[in-house]
Amino acid sequence: MPETIMKDKINYDFIDSLRFIAIITIVIEHSYFWPSYQYFKNIDEQIIQTITMELFKFGTITFYILAGFLIGDKIHTTTSLQYLKRRFDGTFKPWLFWIIVFLILIYANALIIFIKGGDAPAFENPLMYFWEKIKYIIVDTSFWFILNFLGSISILLLFRRYLYSKWVGLLLGTCSIFYSVDIYYHWIPSGHTTAILGFVFYLWIGVILHKYFSQFNEWIKLIKLWHLILLSAITFSLSCFESLYIMNNHIHADPYNTLKITNIIYSLAVFLLLYKIGNPRWIKNLNPRSSTYGIHLVHYIIIVQILPTIFNPLGITPAGKSSIELVIIQYIRFFIAYFASYFLVYLINKSNRIKWIVGQ
Q1: Which side of the chain, N or C, has fewer Cβ within a 10 Å radius?
Q2: What letter does residue 1 receive in the DSSP assignment?
Q3: What is the pLDDT of residues 246-284, one digit of tens each?
Q4: Residue 1 CB: number of other CB atoms within 10 A?
Q5: Are the C-beta atoms of 244 and 47 separated by less than 8 Å?
Q6: Which is nearest to 189 in space by CA: 58, 197, 204, 239?
């Protein structure tokens, strides 16, 4: 690829705006109240559930593209080790802090159950219990993202010398498509939370986007907004169809896997659409740069540790609920979780001594 030097200063407001939207989609997704049988059997219920889940399934890939863009910005002004150290200080340390908070709350809940005379696996087999909870947090909750993210950055930086090569992009893109196929065949663990090589390609796309940002801007100006809306609608429909197919024909596969090929295409289409729409002023006023990562860290803890103390005493459980009822509950849970997370992060950012725990 020919070298392109960008002389104009880049306006980074679009990164903050897209991050803000992406974290909202992730909190909405995690707020879903899964029934015990997980997937409905009735096709009408399946369609409602699938639309709800797939509509906001573009956030993770969006985050990786934006992170890759920032790598492209820093790659010529810092060494790989310096960049990783900065990422470690800004992401890993806060991540580790909130994992400890998560564990403390889990053990506090186990202690309360024990005092009330319930089962006490935390105290009967403490090592096994600790290992299971650590694995649960790192693999099955939103905390999977940071290890995968830092691992993906490290892999990309290994190719630093050849970063702009189309062959590197082809190799990384092939890895991502492999996971798309593996959803059906399970050659290796296919969950997106364990797909170490599944997301590096989207970091690379972000790097390339930064390199050719001027050309990208000229190209996106030529695309009509309604074309991108139509493209997003078509790819969203395809992603829903693939989810329904998986749900009804591959019972051991995850129909809502982020790395489904149709969801990848949908996510890229929505990225273009959101970039085309621009940067609403009201988002900038919310200062998303200082809150987005903090919300990512704390929202899941609020959803699984705090919300049950609100909903369980009211007898609100997934059992017996229709898909419509679950969607209504999902948005109630989202509003509580999001605004509680935002307010908590806002308060933490007020203190220079502790605001490191929410990163940036």
Answers
A1: N
A2: -
A3: 999 987 788 999 999 999 999 999 999 999 998 877 787
A4: 10
A5: yes
A6: 197
